[in-house]
Amino acid sequence: MPPGPPLLRGSLLHLLFLLLLHFLGAPARGAVYTNHFLVELHGGGQAEAERVAAEHGFGGVRKLPFLESGYLFYHNGLAKARRRRSLQHKLRLEKDSRVRKAVQQEGFIRRKRGYRDINDIDINMNDPLFTKQWYLINTGQADGTPGLDLNVAEAWELGYTGKGVTIGIMDDGIDYLHPDLASNYNAKASYDFSSNDPFPYPRYTDDWFNSHGTRCAGEVSAAANNNICGVGVAYNSKVAGIRMLDQPFMTDIIEASSISHMPQVIDIYSASWGPTDNGKTVDGPRELTLQAMADGVNKGRGGKGSIYVWASGDGGSYDDCNCDGYASSMWTISINSAINDGRTALYDESCSSTLASTFSNGRKRNPEAGVATTDLYGNCTLRHSGTSAAAPEAAGVFALALEANLQLTWRDMQHLTVLTSKRNQLHDEVHRWRRNGVGLEFNHLFGYGVLDAGAMVRMAKDWKTVPERFHCVGGSIQEPEKIPPSGKLVLTLTTDACEGKENFVRYLEHVQAVITVNSTRRGDLTINMTSPMGTKSILLSRRPRDDDSKVGFDKWPFMTTHTWGEDPRGSWALELGFAGREPQRGVLREWTLMLHGTQSAPYIEQVVRDYQSKLAMSKKEELEEELDEAVERSLKSILSKN
User: Fold this and answer.
1) Do the strands 469-477 and 536-540 form a parallel or antiparallel pair, or are they unpaired?
2) Cα–Cα distance for residue pair 34/28, rounded to 1 Å
3) Contacts for 540-545 with beta carbons within 8 Å, 24 or more apart?
4) Which keywords does the record carry (predicted)?
5) What pairs with residue 507 in β-bridges?
6) Do 63 and 71 contact (CB within 8 A), yes or no?
7) Helices vs. strands in the chain: H and E counts, helices first
8) Residue of 36, 75, 86, 171 with catalytic role
9) From the CA atom positions of the chain, what is the Rg in Å?
10) Is residue 22 very low, low, confident or very high in pLDDT (cuts 50, 70, 90)?
11) Cβ neighbour number for residue 534 with a 10 Å cutoff
């Protein structure tokens, strides 16, 4: 994507600055320090870095692709996790004239997202578990609802199987010797960032704890018609293993390195992990990872942008995925899950940043209601579940769409997701399905519906890249406002969406409410935001396990996708209150409205083939104008003949 005008670039820098203020501003509590150091040199390249490392007793060096002169130094003489900084190593490095900067990496927790183990279409596969893969073709197996699936059969029948597309599984490794994965394994695009070698094989444990990545890989790229296990959603795609989730503590360098690994080879990155889903954690990407993600969407895939797919989270009704800075990032496609009868899974988190859903298990005791896929040491399983299973399914669908059109950008993929996902027979017992200001139907848990592979590849084939994206600070309230113990605090911001400026936004994609707020109990706080076109987004729901009374939210970017396609001009309302049993107090200290979208109609070049589709609905004004013009031409023709 070419660089925007100076004002646009300034807005992007402002956005990154706001995000960094949050993620870096809070003091560390119970910090852990690893044996990894970020070292930036004044120059000299890899050879110079290796000399510096050796002279200071460091056992290994790796170039960091997201920093021009940045390297990972790791010291085998230090513990992998300790409570105190190793100041002597840091100071020695900083005194070296060749070193510009040295930072010992803090460790933090990232968890795999899983829960607990739990016939009209003529597609012939000889894989033994294929008939049990109800999420691919649902004929009512395991007491499911026939037809409630990803509609991959239509995409396959059109000839799309993921050929030419590579998906990176960022996880605990891949059993790349597995006979159902070996033929589709991309060794050159794989790496082990936990052990710093090119062999991302899972570490052995008696309880098979490190089977997570292998199971995710099989959902995407398991080979077809080989009489082994099941079939991947994109069974002719290539899969890369990025092992980064198997060490005591995560570091910013490991995350950033994984997210930026070979972005000109890997098309889609699938992540089924995130901060702890305990209902009381508020966490997200750190400085280097934020920069790596921004670089990925701007520079990956030859400038078309890396596609990041994220599991929404497994905290259930006790959590809110807008408190997860990965799932709620506008640079990721956040995916939730439904079970095989269309109901929500017990672990599903709801939030306004979720874009769409796929399938998993979590309610039924039927042993065949889980996700069938590959397992460690050449085995197969029917017991994969959680939103861990949902994200790779989405990555597979996106691989089918990319095969149909390799020119799709990261934003094109999000637009296609909004336009082709379907309500189908999904049922949320808590949140109703609603329509936003331009008529697009959404749900607070399922997003815009379940992915439809057939519809997506059909639309992708003829897709024209959406117009340039702009960023506008729609306004800000900086004066402290008290949140009453009962009732609501309601504030309004009226914005022209930067109209008359180079970064004017007319058609919305993502909206962020960057908020600083403190309260006597963070878990009882609720936040809603209503757009000028009347769409209400639940930015934060009650989290009953969150007892925090000190940190609150510090410049936290709550995000909504529910206003997609709307005109942002007008008055936005922010509503804050408490939902617990005991009275609480709080203070809103800042609300900044960030608008992201296009100036011109995003679908003006798209061809409407189904006048009942979301695309037709989104082009309603344009189609009405075309109809009026056609009627006028017909009348003129009739009158001229008379």
Assistant:
1) unpaired
2) 14
3) 540/320, 540/322, 540/323, 541/320, 541/350, 541/351, 541/579, 542/579, 542/580, 543/279, 543/280, 543/318, 543/319, 543/320, 543/323, 544/279, 544/318, 544/580, 545/278, 545/279, 545/280, 545/318, 545/319
4) Cleavage on pair of basic residues, Disulfide bond, Glycoprotein, Hydrolase, Protease, Secreted, Serine protease, Signal, Zymogen
5) 598
6) yes
7) 12, 26
8) 171
9) 25
10) very low
11) 13
Query: Residue 333's closest CA among 458, 262, 418?
Result: 418
If you write DSSP's letter for every residue of 199-248 in order, what string do you get? --PPPP-TT-GGGHHHHHHHHHHPPSSSSSS---TTTTSEEEEEE-S-SS
pLDDT in tens, 263-322: 999 999 999 999 999 999 999 999 999 999 999 999 999 999 999 999 999 888 999 999
Alpha carbons 567 and 195: distance in angstroms, whole number: 49
- 171 belongs to the catalytic site: yes
pTM for the full predicted model: 0.87
Q: How many other C-beta atoms are found inside a 10 Å radius of the C-beta of residue 532?
A: 18
202 neighbors 243 (Cβ within 8 angstroms): yes
Q: Is 56 a catalytic residue?
A: no
CB 339 within 8 A of CB 363: yes
Pairing between β-strand 489-495 and β-strand 481-483 as defined by DSSP bridges: unpaired
d(CA 15, CA 339): 37
Average pLDDT over residues 487-505: 98
* Nearest-angstrom CA–CA distance, 371 and 248: 28
| Strands (E) located in 133-194 | 166-171, 191-192
DSSP 432: -
Out of 86, 334, 350, 388, pick the active-site residue: 388
Measured distance CA(642)–CA(640) in Å, rounded: 5
SS3 415: helix
Residue-wise pLDDT tens digits, 392-451 = 999 999 999 999 999 999 999 999 999 999 999 898 888 899 999 999 999 999 999 999
Side chain identity, residue 236: N
Question: Active-site residue among 56, 212, 471, 562?
Answer: 212
- Per the listing, tokens 């040295």 go with 102
In 10 A of CB 57, how many CB atoms? 13
Q: What b/e sequence results for 132-154 when a residue is b if at least 16 CB atoms lie within 10 Å of its CB, and e otherwise?
A: bbbbbbbeebbebbeebbbbbbb
Question: In this structure, are residues 393 and 136 in contact, taking their beta carbons and an 8 Å threshold?
Answer: no
Annotated active-site residue 96? The verdict is no
Contact 539, 530 (CB under 8 A): no
